[in-house]
Design goal:
587 residues; 8-stranded mixed sheet; single chain; globular; 5-stranded mixed beta barrel; Gyrase A, domain 2; OB fold (Dihydrolipoamide Acetyltransferase, E2P); BirA Bifunctional Protein, domain 2; 3 domains; alpha+beta; 17 helices; 23% strand
Length: 587
Amino acid sequence: MNRTHTCNALTSENIGERVILSGWVNSRRDLGGLIFIDLRDREGITQLVINPENASDVADICRPIREEWVLTVCGIVGARPDDMVNKKIGTGKIEVNLEKIAIENKSQPMPYHFNDAQASEDLRLKYRYIEMRKTKLGSYLRLRHDITKHIRDYFDENGFIEVETPILSKSTPEGARDYLVPSRVFPGQFFALPQAPQQYKQILMVGGLERYFQMAHCFRDEDLRADRQPEFTQIDVEMSFITEEDIYELVEGLMTSIFREIKQIDIDTPFPRLSYEEAMFQYGSDKPDTRFKMRLVDLSSVVTHSGFQVFKNAIGDGGKVMAINAKGLNSIASRKTIDEWNDIAKLMKAKGLTYLKIEDDGTIKSPIAKFLTEEEINDITNLTDATSGDIVLIVADAFLTAAQALGRLRTEIAEAHGMIPDNTYNFLWVNKFPLLELDEEAASFIPIHHPFTSPVKADIPLLETNPGGVKAQAYDVVLNGVELGGGSIRIHDAELQQRMFEILNISDTEINSKFGHLLDALGFGAPPHGGLAIGFDRLVMLLTGAPSIRDVIAFPKTTKSSCLLMDSPSQVDGQQLNELALTIQQK
């Protein structure tokens, strides 16, 4: 029997037809006189009815059937009795009266119940194929397919060529640990799995392709969290003869078309833009969530001469006194809650935080009130727009430390107290990043993005004299507080790229060994070019509302980078190691 319909296709219009369905047993109910089976495939569910009086042989076959057995059935579509209509499903008005049944396969008892909220994630990952059948995972993967198709169509319509770049590549320092692959043919030498196709796509621009994109698979050996995996997919894009404005227009067009197609939502364009400095001063984050207010406020100017020594010391050391107003939360700000907020600030390396509570009668309660003048308190409440029922949280520290601590607090408080509106999608661009940052441990500069990012032309003379003051032609696209993607205009001049490597204290030997191919390519007429990469898994996660990118990847790794389904990584036998000229050293 070959199926004629899916389990979501039959309606009242099919009554009287003989149909063939295939799928899994979602549930089975033996009511003595009648046997009911809900048959499920990826499209939906159809109710089957077996009447022993009319089909005793079919009833005999059905009696041992249990959940998740695989069946193919044949029967006549009939109308359900009025009192048995199920309005929650598309097939709720019909049922199929079985004439024939074939058991394609039996199933062992399920390792966990699908509705059991206590079932561990490890158990669900181990039996991922079962999880796909009866949870949202299957629908997420279908949506992922739809988005992928839409992306490919969009880039094709805009003149891009999809090019697959190598998976076996070269180990180069690009910010994260490489996954290494030993070579059998060249003993003692290694390929690296690509962290991103960065150098390949730049070389494609030298090759004259002008507009490239790829759904690129990338690998990074780094510690994981909810929005990270050791292997992930990014929408990789590179263009020649363009400016930042071309990138903004391209990405805004892509996001607008995806949200209209997938979510039936019109996204406003152009996206707002914030410089890195503005984002840090206003939100304490370079990927701010702008769906709610609670912006940071700089109090430094009104407490410069404060009697509170912590404020004076921070400002004297070149730092800032920053604050946020948690509006309306004075009533919940118990000692325990304030201690929890203080712990969050310390987690972000701040020395701690203090506060001003504005009581319902307008009086101020604060552990530092006795150190502040009435004028200073008034200035603080005015700057933070604090009124009765509010609590002002204050951190005094180095600017980045204070800003990031309050930025983290801002998000934690908003999430905990329902300040973030549902079904709202706020995009923005963050640009004008610093090109380099000082690695204090190594006492040298490292790139904020990667070493191929072009400095702002006016800042190029500062590369040797003031590297920390150089701005980058770099940009990130942010959605609801998540860095969706980022990119830059690239260095296309071999001499400038050589200077950049030298400023990063990369030796001539290492430059030639790890980047010689790129410098050679740039020396053969490289066009001006730039691009970006968008985290595809993150995009799908945000579109589905899933809490983690693991929920939108078919076979994800755990937070320890292991695959419980395949039980990997795993040991290999001695012969394989010998072929690769490797020995295992026990730690």
